[in-house]
């Protein structure tokens, strides 16, 4: 299997690797996938009082495409509002990374991770918005 | 173009990268094998079936010498060797051929869940045709239970097919014991020895083996050639898959590819002559590799029995690191994650699952295969490369983080997808 | 072999072209299983896929329709059984790998020149129940006679039958366009066109067609043929095929002229010489001739002693030289026992024909003397 240059770049130089303390205020954590399926993504967002995602971190167990997809979305969500971040589509991720058809599920998982992180943030902050994702 | 050379430098500076550590997928063709084949590419090009002229006789002589060389390494009579296009064809011919020939009296086959895909597919095909197939499970170490085998045999059983050496985990099944059970119950015993020939002593008579599949390219010979041992006493009969000119005693028609056969013969000759020394060296390399990894990485598990195993294989689960991601990280070494035939799929290896491994552990495995042309320097390089990649990916792994925090990942309700 | 030996048995096997040797040696020195995803595997895969392009081009097919096999016999078996047909109609002069592919192959008679009887074919198709597979070879291995394959395909398709064409002897010698021929499957062998033994191909007109594999296992060859690909063989096949294709027209002209001279001189030396299929279209390289009263066995031995390799009957039998079923089907009767096959190829030269004629003159003379 050959990977696109962008996948290789993210795999070799992943952006925003790491973790925030889950309990801290303003942190939303999404944990999606399953070890048995070969992919687990943990995506965390740090949301400012104004509702802007000011930082993001990830850790991923998975193939190069899964690592690249999650690395990419940590870059994309930064500076966005929750609604803007929630509108990121897996197809955008797949297209940007030139994922082959067998790897599309990696981009789906990354989209799910964003939504799960936002939902977690909203749940913690008591937001009455409908649950997302 | 990537070339494997027989004489990779033994110093780090002389290392050619990437380093080939996928000897169970295929082996480099030994330069001595290529040399032996060359004359049959050019001046000695006859069709071995041409009985009317010297070109044909010369080719026939070469074929018969190779037949003796192949027979010798498994203790068979040359007349019992049938040349095929490879072990996959041999396995198909042995299993379907015997089943179809004896189908009036017998309709039951016994095999093992960890067999090569072509054995399992041949059995599934027979099931569709009305045969019954028993798929024996394996213990956690990859070996079958002999009592279970014996209990599975009925008076309708035509064939027991158990591989000599597993292609993913390298474990050696107890062939002599299986052979004794089969002989006692008058059931034919076929073994897929593609990964075993030249790596362990094999004797079809001492082990009571009735059919044995042999591959060229797994033993430093060419691709596209293999053999099937078919016992003459007591005689095993089979229905051919490829009919026509009636070559190979009617069991396999088609012009015999003389140069390929010469290559297979030479590969067997070399393997037989060098097996002892080579195995010792492989053991040393294996120990070096395993010790080197274990010394620097926690949570690494060897899959399959370490004792009942050919020395040129290690299959290791690097917990909390996904295998495909790891393969990308160890790009300077050519390894496989699962078998070469199935690695294009994303399913975890059925062989590892059969050992009782959780899917998540199966997903973290690498198969490291080494052999005749692997050097200590290459092993050392591989150790460093693997340790670095695993360490880096564990830093990236949420599962490793949880493990460090003392969270049991099995306690989490995973959604799956 | 002695340097002066003359090889005139190309239809049994052709000497390897140097380009094929080079391609094979290169491939033999390249490690890698085409199914492996790492660089070694991808390099091997590239060799296989480049070869697939070349083989497809040779017969005017799409690469995805090319299924590499272990040779012509397997390709014939796969073509004839791959679509689940139980009823196979084959011309009586087909290769044994076609006639014996399954039990109960029904034969269609041929005329004295070896051409399939189209009326008989149509009658059999009309009478047939259930799906039929028709097998017809493009060129006969013993006589070189070319069959009206396009016509066969047209008739067969009118009755809903599929058509398999054994093009093993024709490939590389005459132009092949499988769509113009209108056949559904086509069998090829590498070693008849200067490539290696042990590799061939089944080519499918419907490139995406599913085929019931003869050899099951891994997903190689789009699940149509399991087993690690014969990478050196496949690379050698393609190299030889490319050369054969590039040189085809010149070679046909050159070999045709050699063959015609050989036949003319044989007839001059022994006016009773019979050339089978002389009146119909044949491969330019093949001559199947008989001198009444001269046993082929005796003649072939005499030729061999004189360093000239020709054949009696077909090479593909298990030791014993049986009477040719091809010549029997053509109604040759006792003359079949006198038939010698001379087949030329890429390395044949004028001097080879001279040597043949020298020996032929001698054995014909001996026959005349002993008959007198």
- Separate helix tally of chain B: 12
Parts with pLDDT < 50 across at least 5 consecutive residues of chain A: none
Strand portion of chain A: 15-25%
By DSSP, the count of extended strands of chain B is: 12
> What is the 3D shape of chain A?
globular
Task: Give the key terms.
heterotrimer; A: 133 residues; alpha+beta; 3-stranded antiparallel β-sheet; 5 helices; 3 strands; C: 372 residues; alpha/beta; 7-stranded mixed β-sheet; 12 helices; 12 strands; 13% strand; globular
Tell me the layout of helices and strands:
The complex is a heterotrimer of chains A (133), B (417) and C (372).
Chain A: H1 5-12, E1 27-34, E2 39-47, E3 53-61, H2 64-77, H3 82-86, H4 90-97, H5 104-124
Helix pairs in contact in A: 1-2, 2-5, 4-5
Chain B: E1 19-20, H1 31-41, H2 54-74, E2 81-84, H3 87-101, E3 108-112, H4 117-128, E4 132-136, H5 146-152, E5 157-161, H6 175-184, E6 188-192, E7 211-215, E8 226-230, H7 258-296, E9 300-302, E10 313-318, H8 323-329, E11 333-334, H9 350-354, H10 359-362, E12 365-369, H11 376-396, H12 398-404
Parallel strand pairs in B: 1-11, 3-4, 3-5, 5-6, 6-7
Antiparallel strand pairs in B: 2-8, 7-8, 9-10, 10-12
Chain C: E1 6-7, H1 18-28, H2 39-58, E2 66-69, H3 72-81, E3 87-91, H4 96-99, E4 106-108, H5 118-127, E5 132-137, H6 149-158, E6 162-166, H7 178-181, E7 185-189, E8 200-204, H8 220-223, H9 231-269, E9 274-275, E10 286-290, H10 296-305, E11 308-309, H11 325-329, E12 339-343, H12 350-371
Parallel strand pairs in C: 1-11, 3-4, 3-5, 5-6, 6-7
Antiparallel strand pairs in C: 2-8, 7-8, 9-10, 10-12
Helix pairs in contact in C: 1-9, 2-9, 5-6, 9-12
